[in-house]
Amino acid sequence: MPSPVLLNLGSGPHLAPGWTSIDASWNAWLAGRPRLRRAARALGLLADEHEAVGWPESGILLHDVRRGLPFESGAVAGIFAAHFLEHLTPDEARALLAECARVLAPGAPLRVIVPDLETMTACYASSLASGDPEVRARAS
């Protein structure tokens, strides 16, 4: 019996056993090309924080999900997308969610995590109220 198809959309460098990690970022593309990655780093084209993440050299399906999902209708047992949907335009996000509905088996879960803007703004407002000069400098 084949293993269920589980998708992690916009996975970044995070691989989980049994899941298909899908990412189309430059970092994902460069991960499988270590020489090119080193050249891009030497030319200053990669920020330090991207280099520190430690992208795996294999295990990520390079695919732009804005072009649909390369799976048969009803063939996917579950989809996870954390801090990815907010990187799409509203039209792209709607199209992707429709595509998720297409490929998911009946009753299969779709878990989407997006930043909580209310919590983020409350933390920011609290930091401003605290009088932290660094926060105030960034705000002006």
Structure description:
With 140 residues, the chain is α/β, with parallel strands linked by helices. 39% of the residues lie in helices and 16% in strands. A 5-stranded parallel β-sheet has the order 3-2-1-4-5, with helices on one face. Strand 4, helix 4 and strand 5 form a beta-alpha-beta unit.
Q: If strands are numbered along the chain, what order do they take across the biggest sheet?
A: 3-2-1-4-5
Number of helices in the DSSP assignment: 6
State the end-to-end distance.
Answer: 60 Å
Model regions low in confidence, pLDDT < 50 over at least 5 residues: none
Structural class: alpha/beta
Rg to the nearest angstrom?
Answer: 19 Å
What is this entry, summarized?
The chain has 140 residues and is of the alpha/beta class.
Secondary-structure blueprint:
Blueprint (H helix, E strand, L loop, with lengths): L4 E5 L10 E4 L2 H6 L2 H9 L5 H5 L7 E3 L13 E7 L7 H14 L6 E4 L3 H13 L3 H7 L1
Parallel strand pairs: 1-2, 1-4, 2-3, 4-5
